[in-house]
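Before going further, learn to read the protein records used in this course. A complete example follows; check for yourself that the lines match position by position.
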Amino acid sequence: MQNQRTVADGLWVVVRAFVYAVLGGTALIAVATVVAVLGPTLALDLYTPPVAAWWTVFTAIAVQGVPFLLLGTVVSAAIGAFVPERVLKRLLPRTPALAVPVAGVAGAVLPGCECASVPVAGSLMRRGVAPAAALAFLLSAPAINPVVLVATSIAFPGRPEMVLARLLASLGTAVVMGWLWARFGKEKWLRPPRRPAPHATGARAFLVGLQHDFLHAGGFLVLGAAAAATFNIVVPRSVLDVFTGSPWVSVALLALLAVVLCVCSEADAFVAASLSAFPATARLAFMVVGPMVDLKLVALQAGTFGRAFAVRFASVTWVVAVTASVLVGWWLL
């Protein structure tokens, strides 16, 4: 009798989670559609075209990132609810020097953008994975997964060296940053991601974790999207065209532009391909930096791991990513 009641409770939790996911997803799509349609219209009615443009950019970034954020929180909740801690520890080598490159290569199995990688990395840390390995996964997952590499090959037809350059520069940056954190990182800089521990297990724990992670990270995604939209409106494109003449300046400019535009990693190759006036190495830097350091990602990291960590980690990652892009670009491009 007790076993039947337990099975019935488990089935009820699964059904309720499914209903919540369907209703929540439908409501999210409806809200995003209404905002995307009525936002610019309302702004035009108020005779403020810049505000209309701001709404357009903001909704594009937010709507683009939400599905992958949801994917990441689903994976994160599944790891927390169903994967025992001992399994994760057995999959990775015990020494950080070996665990970091293994975690970096493992990032290729999660087809998603940077919005998805932050909650997954947080869940890995909660399950006992070394922070250096989890951070290497965080950086590599949105940059070297098959979806991103295929999109890059389509954006740059007949140029397989651009795909290879992106793979090598991105993976190299992720591994180097993992090693740097293992060697120089301090515990006081990283606020361990915490979630109120549910008393239930299995499907009920999965539902609790999904609700917590998605609501927590979603707010910071919106904040980053708003900052990126503001930059797009404030800085005119004519200013950017002044810097296309110098190779070194163009690399730094596109690396900074990647931070503020917040283009999803699945789409940034097409943006880079459109910047045909810039050298190939500069466009490579745009594709390497973007999935690792942008405004919405920094906001997500600050909300998950703490502001002290986000500022330090993002700054060093930007430098390493630019350096890797220049070296790989000089070699292959």
